[in-house]
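Chain and conformation:
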Amino acid sequence: MIIVDSREKKWQHIEKYFQQHGILYQIQKLDIADYMLEGQDKFVIDRKQNLDELCSNLCTKDSGRFWREVRRSREQKVKMVILCEHGGKIKSIKDVAEWKSTYSRVTGRQLAAEIYRVHIAYGVEFLFCDKRSTGRRIVELLEDTAWIEKR
């Protein structure tokens, strides 16, 4: 069963995928991230709606909650994956460098540098997908025990 954080917002498309495919899920407060497999608390997925949300988490004064989660994951030896639903041409961190925000002065190159910093310093993985495939990607990642072994 997948545990979904009770604070998760705008996830109806994921919930619809779970329901259409008979994926069992339960909503409860998670201390780290947005999704985990019940009984497997050493691997979590934190979903970001797009690069603008990721940018606000990494590059603004309001990033405290995100950084606390990242640090907590490392302290508790939890492998964290950030799944960003930006879609389009953004398929890897390298692609982020070419991104231009409509809301922020942060450049794609600056955001990519911050992503690499989090990845190197804390072991957080960053993956990208289209919003239509998020539910499927969450299920695939949670079922892939190789991620858990990489902690």
Remarks:
- The chain has one domain: 39-149.
- The beta strands are 2-5, 25-28, 35-37, 40-48, 79-84, 125-128.
- The radius of gyration is 15 Å.
